[in-house]
Amino acid sequence: MALADHLRELRNRVVKSVLAIVVFTAVAAFYHKQLTDLLLNPLPKCSSNGLTTDGQKCGVISTIGLLTPFTLALKVSLTAGVVAATPVWLYQLWAFVAPGLHKHERKYSVSFLAAGIPLFLAGAVLAYLVLPATARMLISFAPTEAVPIMPAEDYLDVVTRMVLVFGGAFELPLLLVMLNFIGVLTGKRLLGWWRGMVMGITVFAAFATPSADPLSMLALAAPIWALYFVAVGISLFNDRRRARNNPDADLDDEEASHVDLTVEGVAGAEAVEASDAPEAPAPVPAARREQMDDIT
Fold this sequence. Notes:
Elements: H1 3-29, H2 32-40, E1 60-62, H3 68-84, H4 86-97, H5 103-139, E2 149-151, H6 152-169, H7 172-181, H8 187-192, H9 194-208, H10 214-245, H11 286-295
Parallel strand pairs: 1-2
């Protein structure tokens, strides 16, 4: 395909993804109040004395401004639309890349697409589950006599970022397995990178999580550590399977493969008689040889 055709194909895939997100966002808009209550539920509730029922500090959600409730409902609906449309935009991404893959790579990519959807949703669910502990830890830093007042928009921005970051981070091990299946990375190399990967995942979690508390950072980093080692195990198993089917699969491009030099007899071969052998060519005279040497 020409460059213009690729750009046209990309535009069509993006339009289909956006339309799916818009449709799911419109459906979620009818339930924006229930969704907002669901997202606000992890916050510790205040009692009459300004503390939670177990005596810990709590925060008060506020909406400031005339347009804030509408903006809040739009953000909640859009976040729900993006999460609900995950199978659609992941499929459109795969459909754009698939024509450039080999037949066996397309077979693998369908499986990766099927695994990528639950992984993204699992990351989003984990982000929601760690929200209560994250909120309690952040509110605990407030002064004793102060009552934290949290704008709803700021809180939902934190929730949205956590959902998208957690969901996207859960796709990293799947990407490593994909690179192994198409022959770019080996399981042995991935295992040798484990120290750097653990450190890199920790640093990524520290910068990717919206809050600076170590709890949310570890909540993101620990599952990715586990998924990384699962990806290493799958890659090692795939390398062994590939080695059984093709002993030369792990050879470098500059490494020679094994050559079988065993000599086997040819069935039905006949010995050549001396009388059937071709006659030897006549010897070249000495004068002719000297002339040939001069010409050379």
